[in-house]
Design goal:
The protein is an all-alpha fold. The protein has 11 helices and no strands. About 0% of the residues have low confidence.
Length: about 260
């Protein structure tokens, strides 16, 4: 075996190991979700349920609350991306880097606030309902996308930017054709974190009149129905894992296409 062949073999082995890890990641999350929900539903429905529990765990009720929960998550995450990405681009520019630390600190402060306190505070300041819940979820999840946008743009190789400028590209063209495409995987990783955060935090929105899986959790607590709490909690956990799994697939697809 020649010295030239050894690096090629090592690289091939590393590629094979990486692919195996990715392939295992693709089925591990769904397996955990299926097993977890199977255990939860099996434990609950193997016992007789009273009228309140039966009504709370009715499939149509669960699907309705799940749809409302997903709506909160999707709307708030879209709002996060629409706000955080442009602001992250802006404060990553050389002329605006003076305020970069202040903007990130404000976003960090918003995330550091207790989610329940933030949701209730905004409800009393603005109004109760879905709109305020979306606003609160947006503020609570801004930091990951904002920070990752800044970090992703800052990690772009400066020589690539200089080469683009040397080819006659303007600053705007360099941003959209070179910097952003290279920073997209990091930005998506931030959006992935924001999605998972919003899935969990959205359960608190039921306290201000925004429907979702939190309604079932609150009902289980107020009526002292432990089986309902097991199912509703399992659904939230499964949804968070499922969303994380989907976002992970998108992240890998984007990374491979670079």
């Amino acid at each position: 075996m020649t010295a030239v062949d050894e690096p090629a073999i090592k690289k091939s082995e590393e590629t094979t190991k990486t692919r195996r890890k990715i392939d295992s990641d693709l089925w591990v999350y769904p397996a955990i979700i299926i097993v977890g929900l199977g255990v939860a539903f099996g434990a609950v429905f193997s016992q007789p349920l009273d009228y309140i529990e039966t009504q709370a765990l009715d499939p149509s009720t669960i699907l309705n609350k799940l749809g409302q929960h997903l709506l909160l998550v999707v709307l708030s995450t879209i709002a996060v991306i629409v706000i955080a990405v442009p602001v992250g681009i802006l404060i990553s520019r050389p002329r605006a880097r003076r305020v970069q630390g202040s903007v990130l600190a404000i976003a960090g402060f918003a995330q550091a606030l207790p989610p329940f306190g933030l949701i209730v505070l905004l409800a009393f300041l603005i109004s109760f309902g879905t709109g305020t819940a979306v606003l609160a979820l947006t503020l609570a999840a801004l930091l990951p996308v904002l920070r990752n946008t800044v970090v992703g743009l800052q990690q772009v190789d400066q020589s690539l930017i200089e080469a683009a400028r040397g080819m006659g590209m303007s600053s705007r063209q360099t941003l959209f054709r070179v910097e952003l495409p290279l920073a997209v995987p990091v930005i998506i990783a931030g959006a992935r974190v924001a999605l998972v955060l919003n899935v969990g935090t959205a359960t608190l929105a039921s306290y201000i009149g925004a429907s979702g899986l939190g309604d079932i959790i609150v009902q289980s607590l107020t009526s002292n129905r432990f089986p309902v709490l097991i199912i509703s909690g399992s659904l939230v956990a499964a949804l968070a894992l499922f969303v994380d799994w989907l976002a992970g697939i998108v992240e890998r697809v984007v990374a491979r296409s670079r």
